[in-house]
Amino acid sequence: MIETRILGCNRDSLDAAVKYIEEGEVVAFHTETVYGLGANAFDDGAVLKIFELKGRPSDNPLIVHVHRDYDISPLIDGEPPYAEALRKAFLPGPLTMVYPSTGKVSQYVSCGLNTLAIRVPSSPTAQAFLKAVDLPIAAPSANLSKHVSPVTARHVYEDFAGRIPLILDGGACSGGIESTVLDCTGKVPQILREGLVTRAMIAKVAGDCGVYRRQAGEKPKSPGMAYKHYAPRCNTAHCRTAEEAAALYRRALEEGERPCILAESSVAQELSGYAVLDLGSTGEEMARNLYALLREGEKRATLLIGVEPQLQGGVMDGVMNRWKKAFGAI
Q1: Domain limits for position 72
Q2: Phi–psi pair at 80, nearest 5 degrees
Q3: Pick from 321, 294, 322, 268: which is nearest to 151 by CA?
Q4: How far apart are CA 311 and CA 329, in angstroms?
Q5: Reported pTM
Q6: CATH number, domain at 112?
Q7: pLDDT over threshold 70, residue 330
């Protein structure tokens, strides 16, 4: 085991981060969405170390992160006309853009696909780290595979203490769910994974935007498209109404469980006599709170009961994508 340090972003910690990256190590860092587990995207051994640390399936591609001034043209094999407009509108920010690309970075980043997913995070900590290393950094979320994604440095530490040398702490993540992933290899952009940049926002800039639906048995084109994700380390149950959740809660108590309910604000108020975690009332609040409350729920409860939010559309498409996977409601 190694010592895992949680350090704020300053000159000394950035110097340490650069040294670790140059040595082929993996460093966790804050972004506006979730914390990332980063390594030099040109280094086969370092990229493979990410998969090993996370227990990540070998066919689940990674996203490359760069700072706002990094020239991505050597990393890609061209782009459609709408891509530049999207970059100007949304970057830096929670949008990952997938470009045609073959052989530009480690073969293990894209898992054999002829594409590369690139993101420019807006977090000041991420920007400082990426500028200091001045390399494309391959980085999935900094959690063990299938576990809830981390939105604080402490969450990262809980999963990787003794296994990585450094966590660059930028505070709690403001966005709360991973970036939107957008396929920019065709005439019309297609969302591969919903997030904080919505279909309507993209279509307003690009003129149109589709949503890709993965076919059974098809190789994932993007992170988050396959496998169980975002799951708390306790039993879970999915309900559609407050009444259903209350009945399940009472039955769980009778059976010796420690139940807890996760629900949007209106339902949480209705169930105020129960152990309840309030998810929030807007899409942005629910996105920001979801992962933190899933992690809190796994510590408080042996059974976490989720009452499906009624709010739909926009940011909620991304929230519900994670919700359904966390509660097995897919």
Answers
A1: 5-211
A2: -75, 165
A3: 294
A4: 17
A5: 0.94
A6: 3.90.870.10
A7: no
Token pair 């589709």: residue: 210
Spatial CA neighbour of 43 closest among 169, 126, 133, 143? 133
End position of a domain, from candidates 211, 226, 257: 211
Residue with tokens 């396929």: 183
Indicate whether 322 pLDDT > 90: yes
**What values do phi and psi take at 158, rounded to 5?**
-60, -30
Place of tokens 């169930």: 271
Tokens of 124: 């000041």
Same domain assignment for residues 25 and 136: yes
Does 258 lie in the same domain as 199?
Answer: no
Locus of tokens 């309910």: 261
> Is the distance from CB of 305 to CB of 245 less than 8 angstroms?
yes
**Beta-bridge partner residues of 231:** 147
CB 316 within 8 A of CB 309: yes
Under DSSP, the state recorded for 161 is T
Tokens linked to 138: 């391959």
In angstroms, the CA 91 to CA 93 distance is 5
Q: Give me Rg for the CA atoms of the chain.
A: 20
Using the predicted structure, report yes or no on whether residue 51 has a pLDDT greater than 60: yes
- Give a yes or no: residue 139 inside a domain: yes
Our count of domains for the chain comes to: 2
Q: How far apart are CA 37 and CA 27, in angstroms?
A: 6
253 in the same domain as 196: no
Dig out the tokens for 37 from the structure: 């587990």
Instruction: Report if residue 223 sits inside a domain.
Output: no
Which residues, 6 or more positions from 172, have their beta carbon under 8 angstroms from its beta carbon? 151, 152, 292
Other beta carbons within 10 Å of 131? 14
Same structural domain for residues 195 and 317?
A: no
Per-residue pLDDT reduced to its tens digit, 139-167: 999 999 999 999 999 999 999 999 999 99
DSSP state of 147: B
27, containing H or E segment: strand 27-29
The residue among 196, 211, 226 that closes a domain is 211
DSSP state for residue 217 in the 8-state scheme: T
